[in-house]
Amino acid sequence: MSSIINNINKAFDHRIRLGIMSILVVNEYADFKMLKELLGVTDGNLASHTKALEKEEYINVEKSFIGRKPNTKYYVTKKGRDAFKKHVEAIEKLLNR
Amino acid sequence: MSSIINNINKAFDHRIRLGIMSILVVNEYADFKMLKELLGVTDGNLASHTKALEKEEYINVEKSFIGRKPNTKYYVTKKGRDAFKKHVEAIEKLLNR
DNA sequence: TTAAAGTACTTTGTATTTCAAAGTAAATAG
DNA sequence: CTATTTACTTTGAAATACAAAGTACTTTAA
Protein backbone atom coordinates (compact mmCIF):
# COMPACT_ATOMS: atom_id res chain seq x y z
CA MET A 1 0.00 0.00 0.00
CA SER A 2 2.68 2.49 0.98
CA SER A 3 5.32 3.39 -1.56
CA ILE A 4 7.82 6.16 -1.97
CA ILE A 5 5.47 8.10 -4.23
CA ASN A 6 2.36 7.63 -2.11
CA ASN A 7 2.08 11.11 -0.73
CA ILE A 8 2.48 12.77 -4.07
CA ASN A 9 -0.90 14.21 -4.84
CA LYS A 10 -2.15 13.39 -8.30
CA ALA A 11 -3.98 16.70 -8.46
CA PHE A 12 -0.70 18.60 -8.21
CA ASP A 13 1.32 16.15 -10.26
CA HIS A 14 1.57 18.29 -13.34
CA ARG A 15 3.82 21.25 -13.96
CA ILE A 16 1.00 23.64 -14.76
CA ARG A 17 -1.01 22.78 -11.66
CA LEU A 18 2.17 22.87 -9.58
CA GLY A 19 2.78 26.32 -11.01
CA ILE A 20 -0.75 27.51 -10.30
CA MET A 21 -0.54 26.35 -6.71
CA SER A 22 2.89 27.79 -6.09
CA ILE A 23 1.65 31.14 -7.32
CA LEU A 24 -1.52 31.01 -5.25
CA VAL A 25 0.10 30.00 -1.98
CA VAL A 26 2.33 33.05 -2.04
CA ASN A 27 -0.03 35.58 -3.62
CA GLU A 28 -3.38 34.98 -1.93
CA TYR A 29 -5.04 35.46 -5.28
CA ALA A 30 -4.28 35.69 -8.96
CA ASP A 31 -6.51 36.35 -11.93
CA PHE A 32 -6.72 34.48 -15.19
CA LYS A 33 -4.49 36.86 -17.03
CA MET A 34 -1.79 36.83 -14.38
CA LEU A 35 -1.70 33.02 -14.27
CA LYS A 36 -1.64 32.84 -18.02
CA GLU A 37 1.31 35.19 -18.30
CA LEU A 38 3.31 33.71 -15.45
CA LEU A 39 2.84 30.19 -16.71
CA GLY A 40 2.97 30.86 -20.43
CA VAL A 41 0.04 28.60 -21.26
CA THR A 42 -2.87 28.86 -23.65
CA ASP A 43 -6.28 29.96 -22.45
CA GLY A 44 -8.04 26.64 -22.81
CA ASN A 45 -5.23 24.78 -21.20
CA LEU A 46 -5.18 27.06 -18.18
CA ALA A 47 -8.95 26.86 -17.85
CA SER A 48 -8.93 23.09 -17.74
CA HIS A 49 -6.20 22.98 -15.09
CA THR A 50 -7.89 25.52 -12.86
CA LYS A 51 -11.12 23.58 -13.29
CA ALA A 52 -9.40 20.41 -12.13
CA LEU A 53 -8.10 22.14 -9.00
CA GLU A 54 -11.48 23.69 -8.38
CA LYS A 55 -13.14 20.31 -8.61
CA GLU A 56 -10.89 19.07 -5.81
CA GLU A 57 -11.75 22.18 -3.80
CA TYR A 58 -8.11 23.18 -3.68
CA ILE A 59 -8.84 26.57 -5.17
CA ASN A 60 -11.93 28.66 -5.56
CA VAL A 61 -13.01 31.01 -8.22
CA GLU A 62 -14.51 34.44 -7.96
CA LYS A 63 -16.02 36.00 -11.01
CA SER A 64 -16.69 39.69 -11.15
CA PHE A 65 -16.43 42.66 -13.44
CA ILE A 66 -13.66 45.16 -13.25
CA GLY A 67 -15.26 48.14 -14.88
CA ARG A 68 -17.18 46.40 -17.61
CA LYS A 69 -14.68 43.61 -18.24
CA PRO A 70 -15.05 40.14 -16.84
CA ASN A 71 -12.41 39.13 -14.35
CA THR A 72 -11.80 35.76 -12.78
CA LYS A 73 -9.84 35.54 -9.56
CA TYR A 74 -8.43 32.34 -8.15
CA TYR A 75 -7.80 31.76 -4.46
CA VAL A 76 -6.27 28.81 -2.72
CA THR A 77 -8.53 27.22 -0.10
CA LYS A 78 -7.45 26.00 3.32
CA LYS A 79 -7.85 22.46 2.02
CA GLY A 80 -5.69 23.30 -0.95
CA ARG A 81 -2.99 24.92 1.12
CA ASP A 82 -2.79 21.92 3.44
CA ALA A 83 -2.78 19.41 0.60
CA PHE A 84 -0.13 21.36 -1.27
CA LYS A 85 2.10 21.50 1.79
CA LYS A 86 1.91 17.72 2.11
CA HIS A 87 2.62 17.34 -1.58
CA VAL A 88 5.69 19.56 -1.44
CA GLU A 89 6.99 17.68 1.57
CA ALA A 90 6.48 14.40 -0.28
CA ILE A 91 8.42 15.66 -3.29
CA GLU A 92 11.23 16.96 -1.13
CA LYS A 93 11.40 13.68 0.73
CA LEU A 94 11.51 11.73 -2.52
CA LEU A 95 14.25 13.90 -3.96
CA ASN A 96 16.43 13.85 -0.86
CA ARG A 97 16.31 10.18 -0.10
CA MET B 1 8.86 32.24 -24.11
CA SER B 2 10.24 32.01 -20.61
CA SER B 3 7.87 31.28 -17.75
CA ILE B 4 8.23 30.06 -14.22
CA ILE B 5 7.60 26.48 -15.27
CA ASN B 6 9.87 26.50 -18.30
CA ASN B 7 12.65 24.40 -16.90
CA ILE B 8 10.37 21.71 -15.62
CA ASN B 9 11.02 18.75 -17.87
CA LYS B 10 7.88 17.17 -19.24
CA ALA B 11 9.54 13.78 -19.25
CA PHE B 12 9.92 13.88 -15.47
CA ASP B 13 6.65 15.65 -14.78
CA HIS B 14 4.83 12.64 -13.48
CA ARG B 15 5.09 11.04 -10.07
CA ILE B 16 6.02 7.61 -11.39
CA ARG B 17 8.79 8.89 -13.66
CA LEU B 18 9.99 11.21 -10.90
CA GLY B 19 10.11 8.17 -8.65
CA ILE B 20 11.97 6.04 -11.18
CA MET B 21 14.58 8.74 -11.68
CA SER B 22 15.04 9.45 -8.00
CA ILE B 23 15.66 5.74 -7.45
CA LEU B 24 18.07 5.45 -10.35
CA VAL B 25 20.16 8.50 -9.52
CA VAL B 26 21.01 7.13 -6.10
CA ASN B 27 21.19 3.42 -6.88
CA GLU B 28 23.12 3.21 -10.15
CA TYR B 29 20.71 0.50 -11.25
CA ALA B 30 17.42 -1.10 -10.36
CA ASP B 31 15.57 -3.99 -11.87
CA PHE B 32 11.95 -4.21 -12.88
CA LYS B 33 10.87 -5.93 -9.71
CA MET B 34 12.63 -3.45 -7.46
CA LEU B 35 11.07 -0.47 -9.23
CA LYS B 36 7.68 -2.11 -9.15
CA GLU B 37 7.86 -2.73 -5.42
CA LEU B 38 9.31 0.63 -4.47
CA LEU B 39 6.77 2.51 -6.54
CA GLY B 40 3.75 0.29 -5.97
CA VAL B 41 2.66 0.32 -9.59
CA THR B 42 1.27 -2.28 -11.92
CA ASP B 43 3.47 -4.04 -14.44
CA GLY B 44 2.06 -2.44 -17.55
CA ASN B 45 2.13 0.97 -16.05
CA LEU B 46 5.75 0.69 -15.01
CA ALA B 47 6.73 -0.66 -18.42
CA SER B 48 5.19 2.29 -20.22
CA HIS B 49 6.91 4.83 -17.98
CA THR B 50 10.32 3.21 -18.29
CA LYS B 51 9.78 3.05 -22.03
CA ALA B 52 9.06 6.79 -22.11
CA LEU B 53 12.28 7.54 -20.23
CA GLU B 54 14.20 5.15 -22.46
CA LYS B 55 12.87 6.91 -25.54
CA GLU B 56 14.31 10.18 -24.27
CA GLU B 57 17.60 8.39 -23.58
CA TYR B 58 17.39 9.28 -19.92
CA ILE B 59 17.72 5.65 -18.88
CA ASN B 60 18.93 2.53 -20.57
CA VAL B 61 17.85 -1.02 -20.29
CA GLU B 62 19.90 -4.17 -19.94
CA LYS B 63 18.23 -7.51 -20.37
CA SER B 64 19.85 -10.67 -19.09
CA PHE B 65 19.11 -13.89 -17.26
CA ILE B 66 19.73 -14.40 -13.59
CA GLY B 67 19.95 -18.15 -13.40
CA ARG B 68 17.17 -19.10 -15.74
CA LYS B 69 14.94 -16.14 -15.09
CA PRO B 70 14.76 -13.05 -17.23
CA ASN B 71 15.91 -9.87 -15.56
CA THR B 72 15.70 -6.30 -16.73
CA LYS B 73 18.00 -3.71 -15.26
CA TYR B 74 17.54 0.03 -15.65
CA TYR B 75 20.39 2.52 -15.48
CA VAL B 76 20.30 6.27 -15.63
CA THR B 77 22.36 7.75 -18.46
CA LYS B 78 24.61 10.79 -18.22
CA LYS B 79 22.04 12.69 -20.24
CA GLY B 80 19.33 11.57 -17.82
CA ARG B 81 21.32 12.51 -14.78
CA ASP B 82 22.01 15.99 -16.12
CA ALA B 83 18.43 16.56 -17.21
CA PHE B 84 17.11 15.34 -13.89
CA LYS B 85 19.37 17.68 -11.99
CA LYS B 86 18.06 20.62 -13.97
CA HIS B 87 14.51 19.47 -13.39
CA VAL B 88 14.98 19.16 -9.65
CA GLU B 89 16.53 22.60 -9.50
CA ALA B 90 13.59 24.01 -11.46
CA ILE B 91 11.10 22.44 -9.05
CA GLU B 92 12.98 23.72 -6.05
CA LYS B 93 13.15 27.17 -7.53
CA LEU B 94 9.44 27.14 -8.26
CA LEU B 95 8.53 25.98 -4.77
CA ASN B 96 10.76 28.43 -2.97
CA ARG B 97 9.86 31.56 -4.88
C1' DT C 1 5.20 -35.94 -13.78
C1' DT C 2 2.10 -33.10 -14.24
C1' DA C 3 -0.89 -29.71 -12.51
C1' DA C 4 -1.10 -25.39 -10.16
C1' DA C 5 0.93 -21.33 -8.90
C1' DG C 6 4.40 -17.97 -9.40
C1' DT C 7 7.80 -14.80 -11.88
C1' DA C 8 8.99 -11.43 -15.11
C1' DC C 9 7.74 -9.04 -18.11
C1' DT C 10 4.83 -7.25 -22.79
C1' DT C 11 0.78 -6.25 -25.34
C1' DT C 12 -3.63 -4.40 -25.86
C1' DG C 13 -7.49 -1.49 -25.52
C1' DT C 14 -10.09 1.69 -22.93
C1' DA C 15 -10.40 5.64 -20.10
C1' DT C 16 -8.69 9.84 -18.89
C1' DT C 17 -6.14 13.91 -19.59
C1' DT C 18 -4.03 17.46 -22.11
C1' DC C 19 -4.09 20.90 -25.23
C1' DA C 20 -4.85 24.35 -28.82
C1' DA C 21 -8.11 26.10 -32.02
C1' DA C 22 -12.27 28.01 -32.53
C1' DG C 23 -16.11 30.27 -30.43
C1' DT C 24 -18.50 34.01 -27.62
C1' DA C 25 -19.24 38.39 -25.88
C1' DA C 26 -18.03 42.76 -24.66
C1' DA C 27 -14.46 46.72 -24.93
C1' DT C 28 -11.50 49.75 -27.13
C1' DA C 29 -9.19 51.63 -31.33
C1' DG C 30 -9.24 53.45 -35.78
C1' DC D 1 -19.34 51.74 -37.85
C1' DT D 2 -15.75 47.97 -38.46
C1' DA D 3 -11.68 45.91 -36.88
C1' DT D 4 -8.99 44.41 -33.34
C1' DT D 5 -8.24 43.19 -28.69
C1' DT D 6 -9.43 41.29 -24.16
C1' DA D 7 -11.16 37.79 -21.34
C1' DC D 8 -12.54 33.97 -21.08
C1' DT D 9 -15.33 29.08 -22.54
C1' DT D 10 -16.28 25.25 -25.42
C1' DT D 11 -14.98 21.61 -28.29
C1' DG D 12 -12.76 17.75 -30.09
C1' DA D 13 -8.65 15.50 -31.50
C1' DA D 14 -4.32 13.67 -29.86
C1' DA D 15 -1.53 12.00 -26.39
C1' DT D 16 -1.00 9.65 -22.16
C1' DA D 17 -2.00 6.61 -18.32
C1' DC D 18 -3.47 2.55 -16.78
C1' DA D 19 -5.02 -2.19 -15.68
C1' DA D 20 -6.23 -6.50 -17.52
C1' DA D 21 -4.97 -10.04 -20.17
C1' DG D 22 -1.41 -12.43 -22.55
C1' DT D 23 3.23 -14.82 -23.13
C1' DA D 24 6.78 -17.65 -21.87
C1' DC D 25 8.77 -19.67 -18.95
C1' DT D 26 10.16 -21.61 -13.72
C1' DT D 27 9.18 -23.37 -9.28
C1' DT D 28 6.50 -25.93 -5.97
C1' DA D 29 4.13 -29.84 -4.50
C1' DA D 30 1.04 -33.78 -4.90
From TrEMBL, chains A, B:
Coiled coil stretches, renumbered: none
Residue intervals of the Winged helix DNA-binding domain: 16-95
Gene3D superfamilies named among the record's database cross-references: Winged helix-like DNA-binding domain superfamily/Winged helix DNA-binding domain
Domain of life: Bacteria
Cross-referenced Pfam families: HTH_34 (PF13601)
Full protein name: Transcriptional regulator
Species this protein is from: Aquimarina muelleri
Classification of source organism: Bacteria, Pseudomonadati, Bacteroidota, Flavobacteriia, Flavobacteriales
